[in-house]
Amino acid sequence: MSESQLWHEVDDYFTDRLLPDAPDDALEAALRDSDAAGLPAIAVSPLQGKLLQLLAQVQGARHILEIGTLGGYSTIWLGRALPADGRLISLEFNPEHAEVATRNIARAGLDKQVEVRVGAALDSLPQLADENPPPFDLVFIDADKVNNPHYMEWALRLTSTGSLIVLDNVVRGGRVADPANTDPDVVGTRAALDLIGSHPRLSGTAIQTVGAKEYDGFALARVLA
Ligand SMILES: C[S@@+](CC[C@H](N)C(=O)[O-])C[C@H]1O[C@@H](n2cnc3c(N)ncnc32)[C@H](O)[C@@H]1O
């Protein structure tokens, strides 16, 4: 058995035991319809979705910002952590992705709490800031990695003490630590990690993961005073 097969088997094992009722109908349907609409299969895994949900619950999050909606799969996991008066805003560049996500979110019964905004996030974020929203308790960054340092800066602007920022895909098979790799996405992720490590208002870490999403990882950063 290859390493990758083993990672998948262990993910299946954990999913069977820890998420016996999930993915449920709405989550399954979100993946199925995303696939049928030709969206790339790059959503978080069920176990990762549950981690996002748990983080949002630990935060007691009432306001969540997501950058990178795709078909709304991670959005549904996060949206389900919200209290009845909570709100999630998800930013998506591709109108077709946003359309599929909007349908998936409505089927999950989250359309009152979740709003998908279409456009390049670097255009949507200043507009959002102009609205003076309440600080976001959790920001999930999962879009074009080249802009990760900009997304981190915006996340800092739109959060407050105690907020949590989750930055996805920081390992990408180990490319992050390969000095010969100058892919703009990798360079963007390195810059975001440097920002987390050096910013006086951030305390962070990064964790490598293996599983259904192969060898990757995520960074977590808590906003300080
Ligand atoms: C990895 S997928 C998001 C997956 C989703 N968070 C999930 O786990 O279900 C990245 C998404 O970011 C979107 N994206 C790419 N560039 C963007 C940009 N500049 N602004 C907003 N969204 C962007 C892509 O269209 C894609 O749908």
Automatic annotation (TrEMBL):
Please identify the protein, giving its name as recorded: Putative O-methyltransferase YrrM
From the UniProt record, give one GO term of the biological process aspect. methylation
Cited PANTHER family: CAFFEOYL-COA O-METHYLTRANSFERASE 3-RELATED, O-METHYLTRANSFERASE-RELATED
Name the lineage: Bacteria, Bacillati, Actinomycetota, Actinomycetes, Kitasatosporales
Keyword Membrane annotated: no
Q: Signal sequence span per UniProt?
A: none
Q: Name one GO molecular function term.
A: O-methyltransferase activity
Q: Which Pfam families match?
A: Methyltransf_3
Q: Which organism is it from?
A: Streptomyces griseoloalbus
Keywords, ordered alphabetically: Methyltransferase, S-adenosyl-L-methionine, Transferase
Question: From what superkingdom does this record's organism come?
Answer: Bacteria
Among InterPro entries, the record links this protein to: Cation-dep_OMT, SAM-dependent_MTases_sf, SAM_O-MeTrfase
